[in-house]
Amino acid sequence: MEQGRPDDLWSMVYVLVEMRGPLPWNRIRKKHKVGKMKTSTPDEELFRFSPRELIDVSELSY
Fold it and tell me: Would you say residue 24 has pLDDT above 90?
């Protein structure tokens, strides 16, 4: 599977969120478990220490 612009955007969002604290899946090594956590982690938990502008970026769609 090839990555596109939305994937780049999410990578940037995760890096910016991680600057404020560890991501919930930071210590998990199995890719399938990380993927499940990424889809099941509520936005409120992921962005709890983030500025509103970052939440706005995460809500963009292509």
Answer: yes
